[in-house]
Design goal:
Blueprint lengths: L1 H12 L2 E9 L3 E8 L4 E9 L9 H12 L8 E7 L2 E7 L3 E2 H6 L7 H20 L2 E2 L8 E3 L5 E3 L6 E2 L19 H4 L8 H16 L9 H12 L27 H4 L5 H10 L10 H5 L51 E2 L13 E3 L5 E3 L33 H9 L9
Antiparallel strand pairs: 1-2, 2-3, 3-5, 4-5, 6-8, 7-10, 8-9, 11-12, 12-13
GO molecular function, one term: RNA polymerase II CTD heptapeptide repeat kinase activity
Family: Belongs to the protein kinase superfamily. CMGC Ser/Thr protein kinase family. CDC2/CDKX subfamily.
Protein name: Cyclin-dependent kinase D-3-like
Length: 419
C-alpha cells in the first residue's frame, strides 16, 4: 500500500513542470510551473514540513482547509495539493503580478478610479473572509495578487485563523509591522476583523501616496509613527486601550489633518480612510460597511479591472538560460533577481543618512546597508516638506520602564504560544 501511495504521489508530482522561483510566502517557496495535463500555467507553493513525524503540520492543514471553503472571485483559488519528497505542494492559479509591483512601477499612472477599483476588490475579498469568520492576518500589497484579467485576489493564507470564539487567544505578532493595527502593537490577544481593515487602510494610503504610509522600525516606533500622523488617542476615543497587555502611555500629539496627509484624495476617499483608521477596533468600519460607503458610488466609478495598467509580465528565465535546461528532467528551477527592498531612514529624527541606511523588508526584519552600496531610496512616510511644514514633535514615552520595554522588544520574535 505504501509503494502504491508513493507511485501515485510521483505521478501527480510529475504532472507539473517547475520553472523559476516566484517568491517566498509566510511558510513556503512559490514556483511557476506548467500543468502538463491542461497546459495551463500554475503557481506551486512548496511548504517545508521539516522533521515532523506525525504527518502534515497544522499550518499547512489550516491553509488548505480555509482555502477550500473560501471560494470567491477575489480570493486565490487552490487547484490541488499533494505531498512530494517530504514537502507539501499546493497548486494555485497563476497570477501575473501583485499590487506592490503596481505601486512601485513609476511608469504606471494610477487614476482615482484605478485606486478605487483596487480598494474595492481588496475589500470584497476581505468581506467574504470575515463573513466566513476568517481573519487573513497578513494583508500587505505583495499578498494581493493580480491576474491577466486584472482581477485582484487575496493570497497567502498561512497566518489566517478562524475568529469569533470569546475565549480564544491569538498571537499579536501577525502582519508585517507597517500594516499592524494599534491594538496588536499594544499586545492584544483577542481581536477581530478590525485588524484586517486597518491593514487595508494602510494599503489604501499606500495607493494614494505611491509609498508605504507608516514605516516603523519597531513596535514602539510604529506606534509613534501612527500617533505622529493621526494624533495620540484620548481615552474617549478608545476606552479599552489602557487595559491592553503592552499598553504604554505616549505624550499627547494632535497629529495632522488627514486632508493634509493625503491632499490628492477626494472628500469621500478621506472620509472612508478616516473610518478605516479609527483607533477603537469596536468603532472601526467593517469591510462590508466600507464597500457600502459613498466613496464607491461617487464619480468617477471604479475602473474595470481589465482596463487598469499593470507591469509587463516577467519573461520566463528558462528561455534565456538554455544551458540550464535538462531535457530529461524538464525545466530547472531558476532563482530570480534579488527583490529590491524598501529603504528606511535612520531611527533618530526625520533626516536620512545617505551613507548608511536601515532597510526593513516586508516581514519587518532589519538589515544594514554599507557605505557606498547602491540603493533605491524610498521617501519617508510623511514628507512634510512637500506641504511646507516642519515635522511634528515625535511622541515620547512617559509611563514605561525602558528596561521593561527592551525586554518586550527582545522577546518580540520568539515563537508565541497563541495561534
Amino acid at each position: 500500500m505504501a509503494e502504491l501511495d508513493q507511485l501515485l504521489t510521483k505521478k501527480v508530482a510529475d504532472r507539473y513542470l517547475k520553472r523559476e522561483m516566484l517568491g517566498e510566502g509566510t511558510y513556503g517557496v512559490v514556483y511557476k510551473a506548467i500543468d502538463t495535463k491542461t497546459e495551463q500555467t500554475v503557481a506551486i507553493k512548496k511548504i517545508r514540513l521539516g522533521k515532523q513525524k506525525e504527518g502534515v503540520n497544522f499550518t499547512a492543514l489550516r491553509e488548505i482547509k480555509l482555502l477550500k471553503e473560501l471560494n470567491d472571485p477575489n480570493i486565490i483559488k487552490l487547484i490541488d495539493a499533494f505531498p512530494h519528497k517530504g514537502n507539501l505542494h499546493l497548486v494555485f492559479e497563476f497570477m501575473e503580478t501583485d499590487l506592490e509591483a503596481v505601486i512601485r512601477d513609476r511608469n504606471i499612472v494610477l487614476s482615482p478610479a484605478d485606486i478605487k477599483s483596487f480598494l474595492q476588490m481588496t475589500l470584497k475579498g476581505l468581506a467574504f473572509c470575515h463573513k466566513k469568520w476568517v481573519l487573513h492576518r497578513d494583508m500587505k500589497p505583495n499578498n494581493l495578487l493580480i491576474g491577466a484579467d486584472g482581477q485582484l485576489k487575496l493570497a497567502d493564507f498561512g497566518l489566517a485563523r478562524i475568529f469569533g470564539s470569546p475565549d480564544r487567544r491569538l498571537t499579536h505578532q501577525v502582519f508585517a509591522r507597517w500594516y499592524r493595527a494599534p491594538e496588536l502593537l499594544f499586545g492584544a490577544k483577542q481581536y477581530g476583523p478590525g485588524v484586517d481593515v486597518w491593514a487595508a487602510a494602510c494599503i489604501f494610503a499606500e495607493l494614494l501616496l505611491r509609498r508605504p504610509f507608516l514605516q516603523g522600525n519597531s513596535d514602539i516606533d510604529q506606534l509613534g509613527k501612527i500617533f505622529a500622523a493621526l494624533g495620540t488617542p484620548k481615552p474617549p476615543q478608545w476606552q479599552d486601550m489602557i487595559y491592553l497587555p503592552d499598553y504604554v502611555e505616549y505624550q499627547y500629539v494632535p497629529g495632522q489633518s488627514i486632508s493634509t496627509l493625503f491632499p490628492m484624495a477626494s472628500d469621500d476617499a478621506l472620509d472612508l480612510l478616516s473610518k478605516m483608521f479609527t483607533y477603537d477596533p469596536k468603532a472601526r468600519i467593517s469591510a462590508q460597511r466600507a464597500l457600502e460607503h459613498r466613496y464607491f458610488s461617487s464619480v468617477p466609478p471604479p475602473t474595470e479591472p481589465a482596463s487598469i495598467s499593470r507591469p509587463p509580465p516577467k519573461k520566463d528565465h528558462a528561455t534565456f538560460k538554455v544551458l540550464d535546461f535538462n531535457s530529461q528532467c524538464g525545466p530547472t528551477v531558476l532563482s530570480p533577481p534579488r527583490k529590491s527592498r524598501r529603504v528606511m531612514p535612520q531611527r533618530e529624527g526625520f533626516e536620512v543618512n545617505t551613507h548608511q541606511l536601515d532597510k526593513i523588508d516586508e516581514h519587518g526584519n532589519e538589515s544594514r546597508q554599507a557605505a557606498g552600496e547602491r540603493s533605491e531610496h524610498v521617501p519617508m512616510s510623511f514628507d512634510f516638506s512637500v506641504f511646507g511644514m516642519k515635522p511634528p514633535t515625535r511622541p515620547t514615552i512617559n509611563s514605561a520602564d525602558r528596561s521593561h520595554l527592551k525586554r518586550k522588544l527582545d522577546l518580540e520574535f520568539q515563537q508565541p504560544e497563541e495561534e
